[in-house]
Fold each of these.
Amino acid sequence: MSLTSDHVKRVGRLAQLGLTDAEITETLTQLNSILSLVDQMQQIDTKGVVPLAHPLELKQILRADAVTEMDQREKFQNTSPQADAGLYLVPRVVE
Amino acid sequence: MYEAVIGLEVHVQLSTASKIFSGSSTAFGAEPNTQASLIDLGMPGVLPVPNAKAFEMAIKFGLAIDAKIEQESIFDRKNYFYPDLPKGYQISQFEKPIVGPGRVTITLDDGNTKTINVTRAHLEEDAGKSIHDVFDGMTGIDLNRAGTPLLEIVSEPELHSAREAVAYLKVIHSIVRYLDISDGNMAEGSMRCDCNVSVRPEGSELLGTRTEIKNVNSFRFVEKAIDTEIHRQIEILEDGGRVVQETRLYDPDKDETRPMRSKEEANDYRYFPDPDLLPVFIDDSFIETCRIKLPELPDARKARYIAEYGITDYDASVLVADRDLADYFAEVANMSGEGKLAANWVMGSVLAELNQANLAIAEFPVSSRQLSDLLGRIKDDTLNSKTAKTVFEALITGDGEVDTIIEEQGLVQMTDTGAIEAVVDEVISENSHEVANYRAASSDKRSKMLGFFVGQVMKKSQGKANPQAVNQILASKLT
């Protein structure tokens, strides 16, 4: 499978990336070379192999339901570009 | 004729103490961002660790709807951009949810029941809140809610009217409350509902194009939003048009749905397994621990109430729908030994008062013991239905205990025949005209006319005369 520049534009839009035409061409080449590797992997017979959700064959540990975090708002908001009345401020989003 | 096809996605906020992937508190109403840790803020280098209690709650729900509990479940990333989702993805479960297919039974308006299949229920994290209208040109973000555990319950598209959809939603609400895994408060957003609606010509097997109404936040609005959307779609089809697949919002003020302006393309969420989280394996002993903790569920309680208290199927359905109300009724019935009378009072006066004052039963000023005392005084003929109502109202305003109120307001029922006879004689002598009319009337008309005299006697006795005795004495004195 190989991608077209339309695919790249669409993926770029979904990822909120503003790609120039030159970047689209470059990205297209790079992605297609990755996909050719994927094509190669597709040749392998995986019949009967259970899909792997994680490369580590371990089980997730669950934690007990306990409140362990303190309020560190002031510290966190010191590193944020803008905050007011305890809220993080971002450029207005219109719904 | 058209048939509506409806499926619901219900989001239930689970009432854990801490968040699903961090140790931040989930308490409601805290100052903005004081319950948002590095993990909730999506800072680089942090690692989410799932909350065991969230799994326990999800499994209890699964067991309650007779669902398959999946031994292996996997967390995925659902990718979209919005400022109240700092990571740029929501951790959810896509291909392998914790709860597989199950079913619930709903009761229709005609009293028949219907089984609705639940496709799945999965765990995910809630997003933060955006505040749009306070800051000039800026949006404020509060991430206290970010990371609150949600159980998303997805039904099969097997509901065919707004009434059925509401009946289903009420069953889910009732189960969630019985299990005590959420406060289920729709007004505060702890339970939210997305409605998928399509219509098709009756008899057709093909599904029509559906729209999704997002975030409806009350039972009444779910019913109205679905009805409005069904009519809108039928009108489009009747006019030869086509329904567009889109996300819509319901506006209760205008009673209409309209398309959400943004992000049609954003519906491509590019799910993939979250590399930060390993597969979760639930063993049988964990499931059994959850099963042991299951309380008696609504259907079982309903059957028990019918058998123990001799109340009707309908009465039992109404009473068990709300766990707290069911408990209240059972306390009154047990203390007074009067199942049927307790059911009548709880479903009548108590529910009417709760609805009118917009109170939950837990906030109701009349305790189960007080209502039980009141029923006791009705049973021993101290009170008739009218004076009982007076005492009930005094209990609501907090005027003291039942016997004190009866004494202070002089409400003891007049059962002494001699005293009632004296009042009857007075009424007869004061209304000679009506008495003559009564005596001249044919017997079939008399029973109707007797009501006037009963009313007069009750008035004169300030409602205290025993109505049966009044009827008897009047009938014999008037002939």
Amino acid sequence: MSLPTRTFTITRADLAAYAAASGDHNPIHQDETVARSVGLPGVIAHGMYTMALAARAVSEWFPGAEVVSLGCKFTNPVVVPAEGGVDIEVAGEAEAGDGVTTVRLTVTCAGQKVLGMPKAVVRA
Amino acid sequence: MPVDPSLVGRVFPPTRPYAVTEEHVRSFVAAIGGAYDGGPAPATYPIVLAFEAMNAFLETEAIELHRIVHGEQRFSYERPVVPGDVLVATLTVSGLRQIAGNDIIGTTSEVTDETGALVCSTSATLVHRAADA
């Protein structure tokens, strides 16, 4: 079953708020110069930020459902511009199993997949 | 400088006990653009504990955080985290290999509550980018 695609916007201000809340103050998520110095194309979102958006979509599709497992690879960086923001699309396919539902996600930024095989299993 | 290969299998000391508050869960949810209305913390919330454990590991090994890029993260939950929980994370280095001059570091962190019960187990792959990258 296809789930309704959700779109979220990430801004630099979101990354600053996420750094404060998560404790992840890696400067590659704040500082263009540091990001480029380690070969990145610019300031990138925390992988965990994008993963949190994927989890948010799952929690909106299955309100109140307990999450059994959640995982992904971080395959492409999400570059967040200094002005404005960048859109992330989260699509999902749900498959009901034995007491749990497996949600295979597709998370894209400008049409490119940014997470590798993101998957959540929920008790729903 | 490559990461010391004898690290594999090493278990680091548990993080300081962390008391989960509604206020902190609310700020975590707000940072990802949501609105917290009570109940369990988001599924990725245990990264707060796992990240602290990772930081302690990086500091011990003198690895610079800005050279770390996240490769993979997996969570397996026994139960959701809720405000009022007092949690610690214990990190084990599960693997280490080199690809194209980068260190690929595997870690597993077990998040446990005050009773010692497992709340969530989470594994991370960290890519330590070579100095000349």
